Records
---
Amino acid sequence: MEISRYLKPELIKLEMETHIECDPECQLHPEKVLWARKEAILSELVDLLDRSGRVGNKKKFLIDFVNREKKATTGIGHSIAIPHIRTMQAKEFLMGFARSKEGYDFDSLDGEPVHLFFVMAAPPYDDALYLKIFKALAEILQFDYFREELLKVTSEYEVIRAIKRME
């Protein structure tokens, strides 16, 4: 499966910018802090996919991502999260990549910070492509050396080349 053909340089962000400010009352509720962080991160990822010009209603798109995340975390461990949805707000299959060198608490299954975010969206009727890419992505993300390479790349094109080498 050629994952690299679906990842465009404009849909790659080498350093995320999300910063969470939480008032003192919010600090009393760790769950609120987590969801404020997750929603801010998902908002940044939605902004990234919106660069494609292939997102319908951006606000509904974000709501779909948040609702999906509430069902189960997409932080799969090994510093990776793969937020993904099928929604009418995606006009076609979309995939983006964002990285945070510092990492974010994203309620990952292993409890570790997430540094690598692969975000995917597809229309509800596009299951076959969506599932093939998700499976192929999960397979290549198993390799430590590949994840380490993604943490070190210095350009959007290097991300695409790294993925191409794994296909």
---
Amino acid sequence: ADSRSVIADVRTPGEFEEGHVKGALLLPSGCPDEKIEAALPDKNAPVFVYCHSGARAAAAVRRLKAAGYTSVFNIGGIANRGFTKTFPLVR
């Protein structure tokens, strides 16, 4: 994996507190572009996005690509079978 890789959680702060992927950045869907650009300054770094079901992550991927991010991936949602086996959650 690229050392610049970022995992972004686009759920709500409450959902994040209940459990999130270790090291994930909380970037709730609807947060201002300035906050995203401050958290993700390198638009060429790989960004792996997840949410609860994958729907908000898909929207976030479209938004990030539109903002000029080049390596953005939807890795699904924590409700999807097997997700937490690959990405254990921490509180």
---
Amino acid sequence: NPVADWKLQPTVKSSADAYQVLKEFYNNDTIAMVERFNVLYLSNSNRVTGVYQLSKGGITGTVADIQLILGTALKTLAIGIILSHNHPSGNLCPSTADKDLTRKLCKAAQFMDLKILDHLILSPEEGQYYSFAEKGEL
């Protein structure tokens, strides 16, 4: 749900900022057991307009529906999108499926003047994540 009071909306200027917002949407009790996919939506000034807890899967995967991700971006009046999911194993290397999904979303978002700003993979280890943007993979 979009944050109602704009003064309370955090501004995301880096992958570290995005991680700080998104980590609150991963359950510490299950982050090492179940994969989740969450999406952070940002305004033109990089203020958070909402976080969508898209899906919860199993130990090795979860579903990320492109139509739901982009449809929610339109509903929250977002301009920027930061994708995130966790790897229960702690392995932060993106899979081929992770890379393919990110590429598909980047292409689809362009048609609606939306930007995929980053895709974070979170580890069960506090503070550990992989950023597609930091690695030049967007």
